[in-house]
Amino acid sequence: MENKKIAIIGTPCHMTAAAKMDMFTNFLGESTVNIKIGLFCMENFSYSYMKQLLENYGYDMKDVVECRVEKDNLWFYLTEDRMFKLPLKEAKSCMRKNCQICMDFTSEQSDISVGSVGSPDGWSTIILRTEKGLKLLKNAEKDGYIKTKNLKPNGLKILENLANKKKMKNKEEIMKREHSGRPVLYQRYIPLDDFANEVRECQFEDLKGDVVDIGSCVLCGACVLVCPEDIVKIEDRKPQLKGKCPQDCNLCYVACPRTYIPKDEPILDISKKPLGNYQKIVSAQAPKIKGQDGGVATALLNYALSKKMADEVMVVDKKRDQPWKPEAKLTSNVADVLSASGTKYSACPIFKSLKNRESGGI
Length: 362
Ligand SMILES: Cc1cc2nc3c(=O)[nH]c(=O)nc-3n(C[C@H](O)[C@H](O)[C@H](O)COP(=O)(O)OP(=O)(O)OC[C@H]3O[C@@H](n4cnc5c(N)ncnc54)[C@H](O)[C@@H]3O)c2cc1C
Ligand code: SF4
Ligand code: SF4
Ligand code: SF4
What we know:
Layout: E1 6-10, H1 12-23, H2 25-28, E2 33-39, H3 47-56, E3 64-70, E4 73-78, E5 83-87, H4 88-91, E6 112-115, E7 124-128, H5 131-142, E8 147-150, H6 153-179, H7 192-199, H8 204-212, H9 222-226, E9 232-235, E10 238-241, H10 251-255, E11 280-285, H11 296-306, E12 312-318, E13 326-331, H12 334-339
Parallel strand pairs: 1-2, 1-12, 2-6
Antiparallel strand pairs: 3-4, 4-5, 6-7, 7-11, 8-11, 9-10, 12-13
The structure holds flavin-adenine dinucleotide (FAD) and iron/sulfur cluster (3 copies).
């Protein structure tokens, strides 16, 4: 059966995994992901730690209506018009360890990146990186799904500074980890030609040692998706092996965004391109949608679905039985896309939701 086209949304580490799957179709087969909408992301939190921290202050996740990062605080808007402000410094005790070595703030591998930094309240900042991204935005604007305006020069400066700050700070942590003998593989320069040799004999046990056990796993679920034996399961918030790997398979190691990422050129000065490569950058708003910021992510996914640029979209909604726990959902229903608007500040193995689709392929 012909592969369906899927639009996905996710954090920068999700976008890296999707880009690796695009890069290594010779290993992994043709990817069904055809549109990548990436979010800005400074850090992410452990759901269970955050839940516990809230309970320590006498609040329950089920009473949280909205959650947002503003300046130096994480704000929880609660039922009965209550509010709780948690200083980001304190929230950082719940931050995932893998986020401390993350160098990407703006989803540099996406077609379109969306975040709030740089634009006024109620608007989103959009970075257009590929021809596909430019076309999606242009058509969505023409058909009234979103409106755009120029990003103010000061907004761009703030955005670049923040992206740089993340890179500089986390580079220090990478150096610290490497110094103590815990190599951060995705930041090691490796030419494309050497990649196949380097990963030839690497299997799940290597992935466990090189990524999971040393606090590099971003919990994206790419290893679950690509495993041809279906023996990788996520349990206790980490990927675990539930069977025996055939001798010549290395697919989970190839797809993981935290193993080697081949680069044609070594990156000598990370401060030169804090936002990665892009073609255009604007502020945008979706007038009819209530989203986390400008509602633009939801509007673009809706547009892609409605105009058949994608057969299905992958969104991240909240679990019905665990308030604010993120759950990825593959859908062709606009109502599901609308329901998933808003940010859930914890990790979600989005690629798991693409497993076992009837169309086959990744
Ligand atoms: C963990 C995290 C950290 C972020 N940190 C920053 C930041 O530091 N600075 C900044 O400017 N922006 C950050 N963002 C992005 C910001 O919160 C908004 O998502 C973005 O501005 C888009 O707003 P919107 O109104 O267009 O989105 P909406 O229209 O509300 O749509 C939001 C979309 O995000 C998806 N989504 C929600 N939670 C997750 C998740 N956990 N994983 C993957 N996808 C998800 C949903 O499927 C939905 O489609 C972060 C997002 C996440 C998930
Ligand atoms: S590793 Fe953490 S900080 Fe980096 S993109 Fe993923 S969730 Fe965000
Ligand atoms: S079978 Fe292949 S993809 Fe699956 S866990 Fe083993 S090495 Fe990884
Ligand atoms: S080990 Fe699996 S879940 Fe973790 S980052 Fe790698 S591919 Fe993603």
